[in-house]
Amino acid sequence: MKCRLAALSVVLVAGGLAGCSRDKNDRPTPKAQPAVSASTAPLPGAGAEETKPTAPGPGPSAPAPRHGAGLPSDTQLSEAGVGPYVIGIERAELSSAGLVGAVSTGADGCESGAGLSRYGAPALFFAKGALQHVKITGSTIRTPAGVGVGTALADAKRAYPDGKTLAGPGGASAWYAEIGDFALLMRIGDGKVSAIEAGPAATLPLTFTGTSLC
């Protein structure tokens, strides 16, 4: 009897162990999860390309020099003119803006007028409807190099060393300095600058000698 019980116990124990082994082996094998690469893992806010702010460019109405000359200022006579009196601007445009007084027509057909006093009351000379050259005779306006009416000829030459002397009718003389396509013409009287003119380098000497452009 004891032998049967011992044998039965052995059978039960063996069966239990076999059952435990089957249960363990029957469990589903976990599926391997795909590894996420650190270099490709999405970050918060990803998807929008990062852009650096850039400075705004000039707008469509940004002013630009006419004919490549430097823009004139309100207080200086440059080779391009003074204030709003830019070489090449239409006379009608100045008139409609109230920037020129009465305009007269000379015997040669050219028109002339005067600008506002805040810009040195420049004499304005027009050819074919456009501003051809500007002339300053007052002492309130100077060139970017500091030359104005009353400046000694020697100082004007030092300010514009690449200039040259021009001879006009009746013994008139001037110190003439080309700046790109434009120029400054400084009329000389008693060893000093008596007037300064600005205009195209191709025509300014002609107006000094009295040649009509109209």
Question: What does the model show?
Answer:
- The chain is α+β, with helices and mostly antiparallel strands and 214 residues long.
- It has a domain at 68-208: 3-Layer(aba) Sandwich (Pathogenesis-related Protein p14a).
- It has four helices and ten strands.
- It has an eight-stranded antiparallel β-sheet with strand order 3-4-5-6-10-9-8-7.
- The chain starts with a helix and ends in a 6-residue tail after the last helix.
- Mean pLDDT is 77; it is low at 1-26 and 28-68.
CATH architecture of the domain at 68-208: 3-Layer(aba) Sandwich
Overall shape: globular
Gap between N and C termini? 147 Å
**Nearest-integer average pLDDT:** 77
Order of helices and strands: HEEHEEEEHEEEEH
Approximately how much helix is present in the residues? Answer: 10-25%
The total of beta strands comes to 10
